[in-house]
Amino acid sequence: LELTWIGKENRPKLEPRILLEDPAKSYHAKHRVASADLFDNRLIFGDNLLALKALEAEFSGRVKCIFIDPPYNTGSAFTHYDDGVEHSIWLSLMRDRLEIIKRLLSDDGSLWITIDDNEAHYLKVLCDEVFGRANFVSNVIWQKNFAPKSSARHLSVSHDHVLVFAKDSTKWERNLQPRSGTQDDRYKNIDNDPRGVWISDQLTARNPYSKGLYAVRCPSGRPIEGPPKGRFWAVSEERFWELDSDKRIWWGKDWNNMPRLKRFLSDVQEGVVPQTIWSHEEVGHTQEAKKELLAHAADIDEVFMTPNPERLLKRVLEIATNRGDLVLDSFAGSGTTAAVAHKMGRRWIMVELGDHCHTHILPRLTKVIDGEDPGCITEAVSWRGGGGFRYYRLAPSLLEKDKWGNWVINHDYNAAMLAEALCKLEGFSYAPSDAVYWKHGHSTERDFVYVTTASLTHEQLQQLSDEVGPDRSLLVLCTAFRARADAYPNLTVKKIPKQVLSRCEWGHDDYSLQVENQPQ
Question: Is the pTM of this model over 0.90?
Answer without folding.
Answer: no
